[in-house]
Each structure stands twice: as structure tokens, then as C-alpha cells.
Amino acid sequence: MQVFAKRDHGFDPAGWPLVAFGKEGNRDALLRASKPGDRVVFVGTQGEPTAPEERGRLLGMAEFARIAVNTRDIVDPGLMQARDLNEDGTHVWGWALPMVRAWRFTEPRLKLIDVLREQLSYEATVRAVLLDDADAGMVMALPKDEVPVAVNARVRGLTEAVDAITGTGPTTGLTPTSWEGSVSHDATREAWTYAMRFGRRNIWKVGHAQDVEERLRQINLHVPHEELGEQWRLHAQQRWPTSLQAFEMEQRVFGAMKSFRTQGERLRCTENQLLQAWTGSLTSTSGC
Questions:
Q1: Is 131 a member of any domain?
Q2: Omega before 108 cis (within 30°)?
Q3: CA angle 101, 219, 181 (to 5 degrees)
């Protein structure tokens, strides 16, 4: 697996599920250089419209489908702003590759210069540049949370068409898979869908994990609870025979709570609203 890096104004797989470029040639350069399963790391630019707290920092990482698309065909027009459009109405970042999986680096997100051995070249502002093995290893070792990606029907159809033509099997993974690294993960093992609450606030975090207690511990490592007097607490959990089924329930909850989404896996809603979505999402779709 290769890891590329690209500067961007933000990282929003749920609303903007693309690796986007201003020129067709820059997108196609990544197509030529990449292989199935490769990833792109997003680094916040140093100026507007990037939020001040994200400038120069490693924001997230995405696996992408090697399928050329037009941004207008993927992104909800209601999410586009004036700065996203040229005077003739074409999109500033009109050439793209769709994300299929995404991970957000956990807080506090580190500055690029604290992780990579050298600053990225200017080329990373317009293109995705390949990281060497040492820098790629450093990035892959950073703590991160997998986050939902808005994969629309057109992207799914294109991906399936490519799979059928090439006969190589799935181009990419939209769901949990088994892998081995510093920690092994078996997608066929039992897992839990969880809902966590921040203190007594109406802020919730929904996700899935094979070890919920360890997941909770890791999340709270980045919360200054000694200053705030509150932290994430487990509110509900549902056991499933496999990670796939736990992931599917997580996605059903997110689907039911679409209008309550804030950032990443977080929701802002009342306890009753979450409970209604939770109980309505308990039916498995995997036949197990």
C-alpha cells in the first residue's frame, strides 16, 4: 500500500467524499501512480478558508476508488459555496476520485512538521505527492477513528462495473475488513455497536469496536477531563457476531440521525431521540 499526501481546505468524508483537484491532469497523475488500496493523507493549508486550528495539521486519511469522476456528480449542490465555483459556473475542484473509506486523526491533531521528516513541497498543493516508506509508516501509526463516507449510488455502480470488467474482485472496501499490523483485527470476530455520551450533555458518539472498554479508554486519553470535569461515558452497547454487523448497525443509526450529525461520529440530540434511532436500528441486515 502506498500513501500520498495532499494539502486541502478541510476533511469532510460525510459531505465531501472526494480527493479533488483543480485540473484533470493532476487527478489523472494520481490515477497513474496509484494502485488499489492506496491512501491519501489530507493536510490543512496554511490560509483561508481552512479553519485556524486545522492549518498545517494532519486532518485525515482516505482510501479512494481509482475511478475518475466529476465533483458536481458527487457533492450535494447545497453544500457548495461561492468560493467553490469559477466565474463561468464550473467547479474550482472539478476533477476527483471518490473516497470509499476514511479515517480522522484523533485530537490533538499533529502538525505535519512534527510527523514528517520534511515539509511537503508546493506540488502537494495541487497534486497528491507520494510519501516515502518512513513517512508513510509514521502516518499510518497515528491514532485515528474510521468515519462514515457518503458513497452515492453512482460511485457504487461505477465501482461494481469496474469489478465486473476486470474480474479482480472488489476494488475497495466499504465495510470492515480483516488486517494485521501492530495490532491484529479480524472482521469475523464478535463486535459491539456503542453509543457514548459526553458527560451529561446532549453530545453523543456512535461507533463500533471489538473491545468497547479499550475504545472508551483511548477516546478519553485526548479529553482534558481534569480541567473539564467530564468525559465520554458508555451509554449503550449492542453485541453482534461480526464487525460487519456492528458496522451496519452503526450506519443505520447514522442514517436515522442524519439531521443531527455534527463532526465525525458525533451527534447532537436528546437522549430520547438517540434511543428511538438506536432501537429502530437493532435489526441485522447480514442474515446472521
A1: yes
A2: yes
A3: 50
Cα dihedral sign, 135-138-143-147: positive
According to DSSP, the β-strands at 39-44 and 3-8 are parallel
User: Which residues form the domain of 12?
Assistant: 3-166
Q: In this structure, are residues 26 and 95 in contact, taking their beta carbons and an 8 Å threshold?
A: yes
Please give the C-alpha separations between residue 13 and each of 69, 75, 104, 221, in angstroms, as whole numbers: 16, 10, 9, 24
Same domain for 208 and 112: no
Per-residue pLDDT of 209-265, as tens digits, reads 888 998 898 888 777 777 778 999 999 999 999 877 888 898 899 999 999 988 667
CB 105 within 8 A of CB 142: yes
> pLDDT by residue (tens digit) across 75-124?
666 656 666 676 666 667 778 898 888 999 887 778 888 888 788 888 88
Residue 216 located in a structural domain: yes
Instruction: Determine, yes or no, domain membership for 119.
Output: yes
How many structural domains comprise the chain? 2
Three-state DSSP state, 283: coil
| Domain shared by 121 and 201, yes or no | no
287 in any annotated domain: no
For the chain, the average pLDDT equals 79
| 140 and 76 housed in the same domain | yes
- 83 φ, ψ to 5°? -70, -15
User: Are 10 and 60 members of one domain?
Assistant: yes
Taking the C-alpha atoms of residue 257 and residue 227, their distance in angstroms, rounded to an integer, is 31
- List the one residue out of 174, 156, 172, 175 whose CA is nearest residue 73: 156
On whether both 23 and 84 belong to a single domain, the answer is yes
How far is 210 from 200, CA to CA, in rounded Å?
Answer: 25
